User: Which sequence fits this backbone?
């Protein structure tokens, strides 16, 4: 397919001009080859290889001479973070800004599937959507299971089983030749035609009738919509002659199948970009070995501008999915091993911070704060294993925060603030707050004509029947967008005002426990702990904590000046991730007979190990450390011992 | 892609839709065909509201912005509605259009993809009529994604106002219509290059030509004298500080392509040898304007043309020519243009196939598509042939009287008027269909769904049964005599004539035989009137009577009737005698009707003087007497 671009859209002069605008130096031949290509291709990009900037450059080139007014470029990513990064780069370029609107699309695969297929499908069936959210769905499913007598057989059956109720919470639609099926995260313990099986399907369908959906449902609806209207796939190809897939390594099989169905690479131009070595296994997707990304002819971006040769060497040995020789072209950094005693586990992070202050230049520290990573946040069930999780190292940090913006109002408000300040998007931010207010009204038991108070209904009601209250509510939203959301007292005071406002709207004056929960203050350290990054105080007083802690999963795509990977139990709870990874680093590559659990632990550590610019540190318990020390020292690693204050520290 | 359906709720004359079946649905719900759709009906019936609904919802290509005001909101006894909604539904999206609207289309199982566009307007503050908020979204209920940017542009319609200033529209100036039309030509891109060569003094492209003109104008001695004069004697006196003001005399401010095009004007070519410009009539300017708009449309992607009263300023023959052009464009194979127009012109109504028409009556629409009416395909073919300009009056009437002869067409309005029912005041059209196809015309007003149209249709027909005592020589082959028939047979004959009843169509069968006989037999007053007229008609067969002769004939006829009455003859007997010349072919029915119509105003007729069936028919079409 020829693209609706000028023939000279990708000539060298244009590329050079845009590269200069974006501050990108083109040093590797595959960078140019990627930019110039208008055919389907795969690009395997090492961490720190400037992939996002390269994508933005390519998109600018496309946009500059794009002349089809009803056809667009489709840019799909896995996470919102990746999408936002691309958008923020495009925004800075006049040519790139064009891509932010119709007929183009930039977004996550989920939002693409929602807006082009799943939502039109639901609209055509007159289904009113209340939410598409796994967390809210889980609550609603449990609520319905426990409260409705319609599902009594199922309830008794599931109550007797461990994790039984979770099956209803993860129930999602799957589309196959026979139609929509209901599946859960595990195999169901009953057949579809047993009484429990029937109620299980009934429960899912009832929630669907109420407009409650899970993310995965959208893929099933999209598949059904496409199978009922086969011409739509052709229309999609016609609408988007160019498709760019970012973070390709993280797309699930279902997503990949759908995308391949819509955009076969031999018909559409599909350029897939990612780093297969940063692929993270999750519980739900099982064995991902059937993926064909990157294909055999994939282009390679092995040069990392992020870190130097030492970190590159460690990273290279951890490339588990597809061995890649990562070339470190960034600042020369340090690899360090922190060996700690069981009693000194709490001193690991402070020791790291001390080293960071010594090794990393201050301006770098401010630009890319150091981070502490672990593959688990909280310990598992086994008793005899140590250490198990981040919480073992940092007992004072709560990792059990309520995830998801929808669980409590303050998270919603925080998310809204981010949207407002980062993108100036008042409509999205306010829309979030409306959602929050509607949930609150719902918890108050407020109904509009016997129906749930949705955003549009509440807005309509206020605009028509009580305009002053509507204005007050909007004023409150505006206030929230600039309020200090880290001050508990202020928040609680604000919520008193908010509650009385909502009482005025609903005309009810009942205190509800669930409401109080929802409006409660929670500190913002859930996944991304926002500990104040204050500069270390002068003197010998240990510095205030400067490093944030988070899970490795959440650190994807980030850049830190220094990264500490804390040894934790890997997913299955049998092995220690740092220990297994060090074995591999010593070997220089992944030995053939490495078991799968060790392999996947190493993959995760790879993600963490490729974050830092100046210093990569790993912490390991002394009893497992000794075998590694000599060989690592020989590879140029620093070795530090973290001991209990009574015994003498040694470095 | 074409606009297949338009719905409106609480918009102007169109009220709210209803949820339960018992209430009357006052909303607009109209389906449109692919090509040409014509809205016809009397004034204030809701035709313009349809056009305006479409153009408010889809916007127009011209830069005229029409604001929604308070009087766009439906007003009922309960007061004014605070919001209205207009939904346009498009069908037949080709794959490129499906692609363009991919996230916006709706595919209901078993149906082709459709695109819905819904405009919702709401009064924000009733005291300030300008405060109306609007939102345009997609999806069947208007809760899908908003329609943005280019996608919205794609759907814009071309709209021709009813009282358009054709000359103004074609005049040069900023953003002129002609410049837009010319810009829509793909080749126009090449004209953007400036190829003016001052050395050789050549230029080919439009921009080059403009540059060259500018160049020569600035070189012209008179112009430069004037410029110098302005500069030295006036402008320099305004200069403040070191700032110097200088003037330039040019054709266009900047020599861009768009400025070049805005200088152009569309006019009729001059007759060869005559250099002077003569202004052509309004009608031709209008035709020229429409031609220009059609040209622009055939170059644009989403072609929907809305025209209000294309007949404006055009004489009947030109109306037909314009309609031919529109029909031709609407059925064009490669670039069909969908046209929706309103008209008050019987010429236009008559020149189009009936299925393209939509009757609009008192806030209700009645499409005359085959699927909607009781007309069958033979009826459509028949009507297309026989529905002429005079008959197409029926589309613009409040009520219609369908009659089978000239005599009825001439006499009935006069009779009605004489007894206090005015056809013109009641908006009654009388349609003479001759002897064929009365039922076909009646079916125009009968709906497939059983809906009763607010247009009353009276079919006035002859029973054609001769009264007892009619001499044999007056009985034609098919005319039976009443005395020879059983009452069941008579009833059956009448019922057969009334078979076309249904909806708003009601048949009024004469009480006995024919209109003329029934009139003569209705009262002595009418007997005298009919005798005078028929005798006059009889004489007219040979020589048209002058006024003197006519008075003579009438006086004689009056005396004869008086004598018969005095002799105690029955009215039936006398009526047969009076009617005889018409039945025997000794006098012409239309001529007799002509004379009768002349006599009616002076006859001092009372409603009770009329035959029963006419009294009922008049009451039906004109409404009860006040």
Assistant:
């Amino acid at each position: 397919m020829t693209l609706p671009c000028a023939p000279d859209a990708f000539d060298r002069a244009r590329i050079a001009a845009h590269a200069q605008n974006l501050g990108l130096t083109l040093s590797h031949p595959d960078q140019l080859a990627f930019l110039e290509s208008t055919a389907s291709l795969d690009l395997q990009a090492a961490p720190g290889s400037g992939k996002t900037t390269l994508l933005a450059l390519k998109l600018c080139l496309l946009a500059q001479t794009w002349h089809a007014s009803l056809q667009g470029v489709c840019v799909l990513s896995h996470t919102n973070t990746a999408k936002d990064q691309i958008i923020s780069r495009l925004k800075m370029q006049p040519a790139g800004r064009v891509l932010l609107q119709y007929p183009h699309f930039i977004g996550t695969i989920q939002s693409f599937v929602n807006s082009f297929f799943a939502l039109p499908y639901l609209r055509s069936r007159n289904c009113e959507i209340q939410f598409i959210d796994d967390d809210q769905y889980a609550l609603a499913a449990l609520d319905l299971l426990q409260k409705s007598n319609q599902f009594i057989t199922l309830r008794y059956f599931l109550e007797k089983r461990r994790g039984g109720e979770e099956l209803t919470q993860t129930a999602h639609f799957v589309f196959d030749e026979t139609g929509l099926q209901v599946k859960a995260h595990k195999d169901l313990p009953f057949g579809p035609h047993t009484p429990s099986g029937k109620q299980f399907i009934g429960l899912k369908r009832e929630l669907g009738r109420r407009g409650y959906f899970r993310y995965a449902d959208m893929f099933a609806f999209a598949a059904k919509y496409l199978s009922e209207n086969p011409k739509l796939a052709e229309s999609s190809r016609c609408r988007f002659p160019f498709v760019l897939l970012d973070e390709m390594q993280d797309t699930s099989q279902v997503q990949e199948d759908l995308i391949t169905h819509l955009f076969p690479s031999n018909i559409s131009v599909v350029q897939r970009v990612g780093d297969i070595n940063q692929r993270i296994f999750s519980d739900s997707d099982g064995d991902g070995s059937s993926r064909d990304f990157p294909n055999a002819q994939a282009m390679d971006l092995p040069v990392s501008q992020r870190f130097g040769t030492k970190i590159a060497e460690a990273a290279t040995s951890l490339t588990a999915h597809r061995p890649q020789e990562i070339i470190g072209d960034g600042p020369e950094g340090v690899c360090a091993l922190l060996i700690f005693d069981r009693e000194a586990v709490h001193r690991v992070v402070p020791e790291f911070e001390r080293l960071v202050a010594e090794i990393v230049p201050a301006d770098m520290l401010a630009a890319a704060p150091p981070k502490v990573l672990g593959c688990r946040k909280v310990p598992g069930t086994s008793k005899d294993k140590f250490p198990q999780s981040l919480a073992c190292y940092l007992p004072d940090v709560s990792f059990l925060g309520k995830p998801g913006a929808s669980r409590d109002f303050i998270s919603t408000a925080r998310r809204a603030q981010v949207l407002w300040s980062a993108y100036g998007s008042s409509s999205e931010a306010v829309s979030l707050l409306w959602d929050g207010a509607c949930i609150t009204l719902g918890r108050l038991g407020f109904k509009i004509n016997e129906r749930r108070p949705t955003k549009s209904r509440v807005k309509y009601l206020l605009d028509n029947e009580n305009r002053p209250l509507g204005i007050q509510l909007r004023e409150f939203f505006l206030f929230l967008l600039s309020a200090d959301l880290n001050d508990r007292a202020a928040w609680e005071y604000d919520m008193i005002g908010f509650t009385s406002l909502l009482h005025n709207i609903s005309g009810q004056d009942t205190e509800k426990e669930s409401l109080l929960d929802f409006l409660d203050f929670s500190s913002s350290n859930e996944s991304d702990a926002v500990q104040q990054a204050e500069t270390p105080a002068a003197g010998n007083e240990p510095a205030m904590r400067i490093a944030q802690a988070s899970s490795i999963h959440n650190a994807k795509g980030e850049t830190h000046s220094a990264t500490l990977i804390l040894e934790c139990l890997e997913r299955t709870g049998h092995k220690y991730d740092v220990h297994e990874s060090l074995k591999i680093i010593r070997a220089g590559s992944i030995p053939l007979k490495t078991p799968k659990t060790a392999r996947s632990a190493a993959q995760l550590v790879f993600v963490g190990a490729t974050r830092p610019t100046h210093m990569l540190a790993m912490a390991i318990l002394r009893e497992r450390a000794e075998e590694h020390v000599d060989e690592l020292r020989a590879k140029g690693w620093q070795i530090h011992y973290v001991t209990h204050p009574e015994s003498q520290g040694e470095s | 892609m074409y606009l297949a359906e338009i719905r409106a709720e609480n918009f102007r004359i169109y009220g709210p839709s209803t949820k339960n079946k018992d209430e009357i649905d006052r909303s607009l719900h109209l389906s449109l065909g692919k090509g040409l759709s014509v809205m016809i009906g009397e004034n204030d019936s809701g035709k313009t509201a349809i056009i305006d609904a479409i153009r408010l919802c889809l916007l127009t290509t011209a830069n005229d912005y029409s604001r929604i005001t308070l009087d766009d909101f439906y007003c009922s006894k309960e007061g004014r509605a605070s919001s209205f909604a207009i939904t346009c539904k498009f069908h037949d999206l080709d794959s490129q259009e499906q692609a363009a609207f991919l996230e916006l289309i709706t595919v209901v199982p078993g149906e082709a993809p459709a695109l819905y566009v819904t405009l919702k307007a709401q009064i924000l503050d009733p005291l300030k009529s300008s405060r109306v908020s609007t939102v345009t979204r997609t999806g069947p209920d208007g809760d899908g994604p908003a329609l943005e940017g280019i996608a919205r542009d794609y759907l814009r319609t071309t709209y021709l106002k009813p009282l358009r200033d054709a000359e103004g529209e074609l005049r040069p100036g900023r953003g002129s219509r002609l410049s837009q039309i010319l810009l829509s030509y793909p080749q126009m891109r090449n004209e953007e290059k400036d190829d003016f060569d001052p050395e050789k003094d050549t230029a080919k492209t439009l921009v080059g030509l403009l540059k060259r003109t500018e160049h020569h104008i600035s070189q012209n001695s008179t112009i430069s004298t004037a410029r110098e004069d302005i500069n030295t004697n006036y402008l320099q006196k305004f200069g403040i500080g070191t700032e110097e003001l200088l003037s330039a005399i040019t054709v266009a401010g900047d020599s861009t392509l768009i400025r070049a095009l805005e200088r152009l004007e569309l006019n009729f070519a001059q007759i060869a040898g005559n250099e002077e410009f003569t202004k052509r009539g309004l009608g031709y300017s209008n035709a020229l304007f429409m031609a220009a708009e059609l040209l622009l449309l055939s170059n644009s992607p989403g072609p929907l043309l809305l025209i209000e009263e294309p007949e404006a300023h055009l004489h009947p023959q030109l109306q037909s020519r314009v309609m031919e052009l529109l029909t031709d464009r609407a059925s064009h194979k490669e670039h069909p243009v969908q046209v929706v127009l309103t008209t008050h012109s019987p010429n236009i109504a008559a020149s189009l196939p009936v299925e393209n028409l939509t009757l609009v009556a008192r806030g209700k629409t009645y499409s005359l598509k085959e699927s909607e009416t009781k007309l069958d395909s033979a009826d459509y073919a028949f009507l297309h042939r026989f529905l002429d300009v005079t008959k197409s009056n029926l589309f613009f009437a409040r009520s219609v009287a369908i009659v089978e002869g000239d005599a009825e067409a001439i006499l009935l309005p006069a009779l009605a008027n004489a007894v206090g029912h005015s056809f013109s005041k009641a908006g009654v059209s009388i349609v003479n269909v001759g002897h064929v196809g009365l039922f076909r015309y009646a079916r125009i007003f009968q709906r497939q769904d059983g809906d009763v149209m607010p247009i009353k249709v009276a079919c006035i027909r002859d029973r054609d049964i001769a009264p007892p005592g009619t001499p044999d020589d007056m009985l034609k082959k098919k005319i039976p005599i009443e005395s020879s028939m059983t009452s069941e047979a008579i009833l059956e004959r009448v019922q057969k004539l009334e078979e076309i009843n249904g909806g708003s169509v009601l048949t009024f069968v004469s009480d006995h035989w024919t209109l003329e006989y029934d009139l003569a037999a209705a009262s002595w007053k009418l007997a005298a009137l009919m005798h005078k007229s028929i005798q006059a008609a009889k004489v007219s067969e040979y020589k048209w009577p002058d006024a003197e002769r006519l008075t003579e004939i009438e006086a004689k006829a009056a005396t004869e009737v008086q004598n018969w009455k005095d002799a105690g003859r029955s009215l039936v007997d006398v009526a047969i005698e009076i009617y005889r010349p018409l039945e025997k072919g000794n006098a012409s029915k239309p001529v007799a009707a002509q004379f009768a119509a002349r006599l009616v105003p002076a006859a001092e007729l009372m409603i009770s003087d009329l035959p029963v069936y006419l009294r009922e028919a008049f009451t039906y079409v004109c409404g009860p007497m006040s």
Q: What stands out?
A: The mean pLDDT of chain B is 88. Chain B has four domains: 2-165+286-361, 186-261, 388-468+479-509, 515-622. Residues 388-468+479-509 of chain B form one domain.
